[in-house]
Amino acid sequence: MGRKFFVGGNWKCNGTTEEVKKIVTMLNEAEVPSEDVVEVVVSPPYVFLPTVKSLLRPDFHVAAQNCWVKKGGAFTGEVSAEMLVNLGIPWVILGHSERRALLNESNEFVGDKVAYALSQGIKVIACVGETLEQREAGSTVAVVAEQTKAIAEKVSDWTNIVLAYEPVWAIGTGKVASPAQAQEVHFELRKWLKEKVSAEVAASTRIIYGGSVNGANCKELGGQPDVDGFLVGGASLKPEFVEIIKAAT
Ligand code: PEP
């Protein structure tokens, strides 16, 4: 079964209404491969989701950057999965390393969030990745396996999950993983899925790479057999995002 190339744009905590509209115009005017070839999902901050959803071309989709771990209620400052459903937002990014590090989101909490979002019908880009210290200690595969395990323990259906391998040392640093480094971890993650979940899930789940992807390095990274696309931060705010989408072909 072929895995459709997936390119996500994580706009993080950036933008004004005017800037967001400019990015959407740029995307709407871009000539990119068809939806049959590449799935494109952009993730603006919450407050811009309705604007982006209403203006964005229909073959691109939107994602929230987070959602609450259970049904909404007395959780000041949070946004629930139910609200995303109400707004017609089909995707959410969960477990991003910035949230894991800055907001102390544990593996278990991320696993619970993934399960809850899926239960509400929202598709999930679930992020895993090691720090530089963990890589240097030789524990990269153990770390991403543990993070993936915490998700696997809470979900039974992987159809609506895209797994994003994002080494923390590569995020926003300009230090991209080499194609061989990315391929090695993606291969290990797929092997883990095969052994611990099922051969079918391993074969069909998209594993995308994130961390300093840009127009210049995307082609070689995207050409690796187990790299099924990208989650892009900084470059997703720029015209070169279009080049990254084109790496699908
Ligand atoms: C990210 O935030 O998910 C990311 C990959 O950022 P950048 O592309 O800027 O490294």
TrEMBL record:
GO cellular component terms, semicolon-separated: cytosol
Single GO MF descriptor: triose-phosphate isomerase activity
Protein EC: 5.3.1.1
Statement: the UniProt record of this protein carries the keyword Isomerase: yes
Similarity annotation: Belongs to the triosephosphate isomerase family.
Main EC class the enzyme belongs to: isomerase
Source organism phylogeny: Eukaryota, Viridiplantae, Streptophyta, Embryophyta, Tracheophyta
Places the protein is found: Cytoplasm
Alphabetically ordered keywords of this record: Cytoplasm, Gluconeogenesis, Glycolysis, Isomerase
Reaction it catalyzes: D-glyceraldehyde 3-phosphate = dihydroxyacetone phosphate
Name of the protein: Triosephosphate isomerase, cytosolic
Pfam families with a match to the protein in the record: TIM (PF00121)
Assembly: Homodimer.
Pathway entry: Carbohydrate biosynthesis; gluconeogenesis; Carbohydrate degradation; glycolysis; D-glyceraldehyde 3-phosphate from glycerone phosphate: step 1/1
Gene Ontology biological process terms, A to Z: gluconeogenesis; glyceraldehyde-3-phosphate biosynthetic process; glycerol catabolic process; glycolytic process
